[in-house]
From TrEMBL:
Protein name listed in UniProt: Type 1 encapsulin shell protein
Organism lineage: Bacteria, Bacillati, Bacillota, Clostridia, Eubacteriales
Entry keywords, A to Z: Encapsulin nanocompartment
Any matching Pfam family: Linocin_M18
Subcellular location: Encapsulin nanocompartment
Family: Belongs to the encapsulin family. Family 1 subfamily.
Domain of life, per lineage: Bacteria
Length: 271
């Protein structure tokens, strides 16, 4: 029996293909972290944990006749999931009439998983000991000015780039902002004839993203080179069959995923 238990589902391969397509399409539209983080994997569902190195201090050390690796820890890949139900009566009616199945429930569930993944990337999970881009100890923090006035946003972001340069952090930069700050950047910058977002987008070669999981008044600037950070994927987003309950069919969308921050200096949070 496979891990996803699909062989136990009394539905045909054509419907599975439609569910898979719906889930992937909805997730791609909702995910933000995967737009700038490099993907390590997928490693498969059997990947239970992954090593997380401090890129500046990882090294072998000998003591008492034993060699161990310092600056390294092994972290479990958590499972992100959400469940949905398809009504058996609806599926039977669609089969008989030839109407396409309404898979809105699968789409909503996929979007929920996407938001959970992004929350893990940005905020981690304090209860489970996971670090996020905005919560990891050791990241650089800059007091944010009023991004709705003058050149404050541009000036703050240049300060972030100066921080990277002073710490020899070079590569691809990406800015991620909460929706309210993103809207503040949709204004003409005096004396330039350009929207503020246009100036900033050119500064980061188009790598500017907005994510609703950030809430409000939050922004983070990263150098997303894989030597500094990445996103580990064990089981990529997939749909499993859970059970038939009250004649209806219950499914679970799941993935195992972990953001790795290998160098904290590659993250600048604006508070």
């Amino acid at each position: 029996m496979s891990y996803l238990s699909r062989e136990n589902a009394p539905i045909d391969s054509e419907l599975w293909e439609k569910i898979d397509s719906e889930v992937v399409t909805a997730a791609r539209a909702a995910l933000t972290g995967r737009k700038f983080l490099h993907i390590y994997g997928p490693l498969g569902i059997g990947a239970d944990s992954i090593r997380v190195d401090d890129s500046q201090s990882v090294d072998e050390a000998e003591a008492d006749g034993l060699i161990t690796t310092k600056g390294r820890k092994y972290v479990q890949l958590p499972t992100i999931f959400d469940d949905f139900t398809l009504l058996a009566k609806d599926l039977e009616s669609d089969r008989k009439t030839g109407y396409p199945a309404d898979l809105s429930a699968a789409s909503y569930s996929s979007e929920t998983c996407a938001r959970k993944e992004d929350r893990l990337i940005f905020f981690g999970s304090e209860a489970n000991g996971y670090e996020g881009l905005l919560t990891a100890p050791g990241i650089h923090k800059i007091k944010r000015s009023d991004w709705g006035a003058e050149e404050n946003a541009f000036t703050d972001l240049v300060s972030g780039l100066e921080w990277f340069a002073s710490n020899s952090i070079y590569g691809t930069y990406a800015l991620i902002v909460s929706p309210d700050l993103f809207m503040k950047l949709q204004r003409i910058q005096p004396g330039t004839g350009l929207l503020e977002i246009e100036r900033i987008s050119k500064l980061f070669k188009g790598n500017v993203f907005s994510s609703p999981v950030l809430g409000t008044q939050k922004a983070v600037l990263v150098c997303s080179e894989p030597r500094y950070m990445d996103l580990v994927i064990g089981q990529d987003l997939a749909t499993a069959y859970l059970e038939q309950k009250d004649l209806n069919h219950r499914f679970r969308i799941l993935e195992t995923v972990l953001p790795r921050i290998k160098r904290k200096e590659a993250v600048v949070a604006f508070e």
